[in-house]
Amino acid sequence: MNNYRIGLWIGVALVALASLAPLGLNDYQQSFLLQVFLVIALAQAWNLISGMTGYVSFGHAAFFGVGAYASALLLTWGFPWWLAVLKSAGIAALLAVPLGFLTLRLRGPYFAIAMLGLNEVGRIVATLWVSVTHGGTGLTLSPELLPSLDVKYFTMFGLALGATLLVAWIHRSRFGLELRAIREDEEAAEMVGVNTTLNKVIAFVLSALIPGAVGAVYVMYTSYINPSSAFEHARNIEMIVVVLFGGSGTVWGPIIGAGTVMVLREMLWAQFPAAHLAALGVLLLVVVLYLPGGLVSILRDRQRSRPDARSGESP
Amino acid sequence: MSAPVCDPDHILCAWGLTRDFGGVQALRGVDLHVARGSITGLIGPNGSGKTTLFQVISGLDRGATGAVTFDRESILGWRPSQIYRRGLARTFQLSRVFPELTVLENIVVAGSRHDRSVTERALGLLERVNLRDYAAVLGKNLSYGQQKLVEFLRVLMSDPALILLDEPAAGVNPTLRQTLWDMVRHLNGLGATFLVIEHNMEVIADLCSEVYVLSEGEIIAHGDFAAIRNDERVLEAYFGKSRRHGAA
Amino acid sequence: MVPAAPSGRLKEEIIMKRRLSLSVLFSLILAVIIFPAVTQAKDIVVGTSVALTGKYARTGQEQLQGFQMWVDEVNARGGLLGRKVKLVHYDDESKPETGAKLYEKLITDDKVDLLIGPYSSDVTMAASTVAEKYHFPMVSSGASATEIWERGYKNTFGLYTLAETYMDSILEFGKSKGLKKIALIYENTAFPRGVAAGVKDKAKKLGMQVVFEEEYGKASTDFSSMIIKIKSRKPDMVIGGSYLPDSTAFMRQAKENRLFAKIFAFAVGPGLPDFGQNLGLDAEGVMGNTQWEPTLKLPGVKEFAEKYNQKYGHEPGYHAGGGYGTGQVLEAAVKKAGSTDPDKVRAALFALDIVTTFGRFKVDATGKQIGKPAYAVQWLAGERHIVLPVEAATAKAAYPFKDWGKR
Amino acid sequence: MELLEPEILLQLLIGGLLAGALYALLACGLNLIFGVMRVINLAHAELMLIGAFGAYVLFHIFGLHPLASLLIVVPAIFFVGYYLQRFLIERVVGRPMLTSLLATYGLSIILINLGLLLFSADFKSIPALQGSFLIDELAVSKPRATAGLISLLLTVGVYQFLERTRLGKAIRAVSEHAQVAAICGIDVRQIRMLTFGMAAAMAGAAGVMLSVIYSFWPGSGVDFIQKCFAIIIIGGMGNFVGAFYGGILLGVVEAFVGGFISTQWAEAAAYLLLVTVLLIRPTGLKGVARA
Known about the structure:
The structure holds 4 protein chains of 4 kinds. Chain B is α/β, with parallel strands linked by helices.
């Protein structure tokens, strides 16, 4: 049986488990899973732009924040939850079009820092636009406005699944190949007919759409949003850590990374917030220094350095 | 922009190409005409502007002034990918295969999006240079010579009408080198035009019907190899005592 | 970004081995999934989250110590309804979103019997929505922004006097001295904004003029540009809707920039012993407000203050008093309800009208505190004294604020 | 409008220059590291806080004045940096940018949380230098003036060291071309350790200066590192002099935005400046775009 098949079956099993989970779990465990899906979806979004094209974003939480605020406002204006999710995702994606054209001209550290700056600009706008966002006080959503936990659970699950399938599809598609070529050598890719700007912007917009929707559901889950929680720097880092930990540029990496990091956090966060973060720091160092391919590279270690490797297959 | 009209016999024409890097003129009014179906050579001392000329023609360097016409269309200012899709392909002086892509992927990525038989075709190309067994090997794991060859195969995927080769044989072992030149000749036989930067004068003499000589950003001579090898200015450019601006 | 050259066979084997051991390590981590511990059914579990880190850490800690003293005492008295009381508490890092998550955890995972609110109006805004969602009554000790009770919720019960009234007595005092011009600065979150709204309202009624007004961010530590501007408006009073770190930093920088006014008054900061410790003599004459002081003449205050001082080595500020009082309110409500059933406890809290160590507790139909007065304090000769209202005063207010050059 | 009174403008300018000098000290160190190692040190602000807490501990245990503690803290942090380079940063030099970003980020999380465990999250301050100098009617804050001037002296000193001494020239050589430097017989590894040590020491000194101006806690670094990013982008990555001017510029801009608009906008100034610069000049103002 080949790796692709194994992955497919594991995927089907996980989807079945996640769909049945609400039957056997209490509210808290269910919302824990919801958060795992949240992290998976965000990590896949980051994977899509940074893992695939190599444009390392340190500010993708900006789109999360935009989605969260848009959704909070739409809900208070009386829109149904599902429309709020769709519209928030759309707003994030629309915003990503001009931002993509502007920021993707930048290379390497400049892009990373510009995205970080963008996230901060988002926070600043949310802070200073008091008439709409209530500034630092933030917005609280009355419980009547919010859908039930099951609805939020399955929506978040859908987003995680959708993001994963999107990444999986892109991975095997011609589009994904072009993105990876951009990651390896942008000029050379352009020179063999890849419209690098268009490809990058499409990837960027897709990778903004997902956090937009995730932010929209997140705010329904916490029923509260303020500038620092919407545009939280730690969330940017979390996406990166999760992807790198699992394995960058792969389909399974973000899922494995999210699972591990979230379990670790669940063990520690409430009692030992400092220890939880310090552990995350140590984990990060270990992965960066000793395991650059992430956990996935342990599971699947095919060093294709000799001609006897099997041909015609994507990683 | 009213570019001068390019003779239909010429696939590529450049007029007055000038590229200025903050005061340093890498190209100064270069005029170049590549005949359809020819293998044209481009020679000149190091730093004379050959690679810059390639950068400008292929669209990677969009800061030049002047005019470039490819197949009767003015392409100056186009994106490299547009130019490539129009049928003008190039290789790099230092091999630029995609290191983390497999050999097959390296070649497939250069094919047209809509072509279903892309993979078959790529494998066929690999077959021809005895690299088919390497299809699943990552680009970074190839030898340098193999990388250059893969890069060459890559640009063939779009059936380009004109191929710019930037020292394709440099660093390639003699056997592979021969394979490469054989393929160039073969493709030329099928109608492809080549513009080749090459230092080996034997290859130039053997291959090229016409040669351009670039020195310090200017075309100082052109014609068949026999003509330019006796040209005073060419000799001076290569061996001359009066090296202006200390350019190497 | 140059890729590494392919490694030799031996090296690969070493790498493989290292990877194997790493994979074992990671699977071990994965295996140690701790699922929520089961709480013992016989204890009454009281849940809360307070700020133990972040901006509100100092005040949050005081509040928690207040709770803990109550828990110890109630258990020494034989518990509540004959059951032992157990406190489950977490750190919300002064962040509303963490607070919301923690209250979700307390209600659905720890399955607590009673809830105490977090510190700060900011975090309470978020936490109260969670409590409302689960119809779980929450007695909120450390929140006072009116906004919290204006959302139609039925499960949030406040102890503190409302933020809007914090500065009333100080403004009246200023008016009586013929002061007119007010400079108003405040943090951009719920409670400080509440204080500011109250000040603007009161100033209008008193015919005073707000000549300068500016919000600042939660993390601000540099007020120098702001102070330079305030200086140019020459206010009579400088009033801050602030917490401890910002009020301390502001006074320090006011001195550095020689900002002068007849009255300096801040929310929260001057009500804490740390304010005097950090500023030393520069605290002299600064006014503030307090919900409670260990010198108040209320039942049990003296005993509580002494015991607290013994246990924690410093005198209690009003946040500690509030924490302790919250415990007493819960105790009274459970006793009245005769159970910890949320509906019964809620009904009891609405009906309650008692005087605790912290003062009177009586709420209106929204759960908002209406029974308790506010007090103004001032730092005099290195100590904090109640100066207003005069009936409760332990010292006479010093006026005006001494100019920096003449100290 | 009263803001345009020369006295207020002067006050704002002085405040901005002094704050800018501190930023410059910090950012120059960051850029020195980037120049030599091509590593963006995300833990730079935490090195600064080690300096601040060092001064805090020395003050509260031994009653040592923060200015005196400079003499102990700065060399100590030099060694911290030296060994950090040796055991950690050295392993990520030459690897992709993300690797070094994440490694130093990991370091920064560890340091912050160690700080939280050791010092708790309370805001700390050192009541040593207080009050102001009066020059006519102009009040100049004592702690700020002292911190600003010392920062300026240190930055200029390091610059002179880089320009004039043999070792400084070696550092610049490695920064410009490590391979050529190695061929010329420079021990590149040693130079990297020295560089990181030196940059860490600059950050530590900035920390001591910070401790006399502001109150701080282990999480205070975030704002500073983000401002430093803005500064090095504005000044050009890897460019020591650029970072100096960038730091001064940011300090002055923040002061004037704070004065003319509001403190909240002043906090936003760094990012707005950063984004604007990147949009106009994708490689920073004096940048060397090396990805």
